[in-house]
Design brief:
By secondary structure, this protein is α+β, with helices and mostly antiparallel strands. It contains three helices and nine strands; from the N terminus they run H-H-E-E-E-E-E-E-E-E-E-H. It is elongated.
Length: 155
């Protein structure tokens, strides 16, 4: 059973500043009904590392364009569909068409690298939260600030 519609109105009434999140959920629900080419995987490798893998068999590196901008990763594959003589094929079952895939990224997520091997495009992502944005423990009565991430980073 799949959900086709979301009514986020009750949540919108009781929250402040989550408009972008609700818009993403609603837009993704609409887009999920569309084309699913090329197929892809999203993996969480560790707390701050992710990998997106797209099955792009038949594409050469120069036919793939990866653009990362704030909160968006866009992968475009351009195939010259008129260059292949299809009159000799008895059956065409391998999709070899142009595509565009968009992935919404969380704040502070950046593309580390991208590789194409064996028909799979892998894009490594890393979340780097700036030091100023990391939580700090505040001491009472004017004591020193304590970096609560220091113990976790050392582990």
């Amino acid at each position: 059973m799949t959900m086709r519609g979301f009514d986020l109105t009750p949540y919108r009434r009781s929250t402040v500043g989550f408009d972008r999140l609700f818009d993403l959920i609603e837009n993704n629900a609409r887009l999920a009904q569309g084309d699913n080419y090329p197929p892809f995987n999203i993996e969480r490798l560790s707390e701050d590392r992710y990998r997106v893998t797209l099955a792009v068999a038949g594409f050469r590196p120069e036919e793939i364009d990866i653009t990362a901008q704030q909160n968006l990763l866009q992968v475009i594959g351009r195939k010259d569909e008129g260059s292949t003589d299809r009159s000799k094929f008895l059956h065409v079952g391998i999709a070899n068409r142009s595509f565009e895939r968009r992935f919404e990224l969380a704040d502070f997520v950046r593309v580390e690298k991208a590789d194409l091997a064996d028909g799979l495009l892998t894009i490594e992502l890393l979340r780097e939260v700036p030091e100023a944005m990391k939580p700090k423990k505040i001491a009472v009565n004017g004591g020193q600030l304590v970096d609560i991430n220091k113990d976790r980073d050392a582990a």
